[in-house]
Amino acid sequence: METKRFFESEYIDVESVKNAENKTATILNAGIPEMTKFGERFTLMTDFNRNTRKYVPNKISWENISKKWGTISDNWVGRTIKFEVEYDEKNKRDRVVAYPTEITPQTEDVTEGV
Q1: Could you give the CA distance from residue 24 to residue 39 in angstroms, rounded to a whole number?
Q2: Does the residue 113 lie in any domain?
Q3: For residue 36, what are the domain limits?
Q4: Domain assignment present for 111
Q5: Tens digits of per-residue pLDDT, 63-107?
Q6: Which residues pair with 42 in a beta bridge?
Q7: Are 59 and 91 in contact (CB under 8 A)?
Q8: Are 85 and 14 in contact (CB under 8 A)?
């Protein structure tokens, strides 16, 4: 039995992305509001390197994803995102930023008319 997963965070964080061979994840649900130490946050369940992990998108990630697939998170289920670690100059630390990876059949901006 591979035991490493028992000692990893349940959340996708900077360290888990830096250490991952494959930096992509599949979104498994439409998300839920979850109370964290920072207040209520929008949390997605993902399949990240064959493990179910929680991901709390920051504003940049949410903008990247919603620009591609819209603001209705039901449309994100089954889609693939790629994580990158980027330096946040304002807060002087690394952060995880998600980018949509799939090319969708819809070519126009999905947020039009919303």
Answers
A1: 27
A2: no
A3: 4-100
A4: no
A5: 999 999 999 999 999 999 999 999 999 999 999 999 999 644 444
A6: 33
A7: no
A8: yes
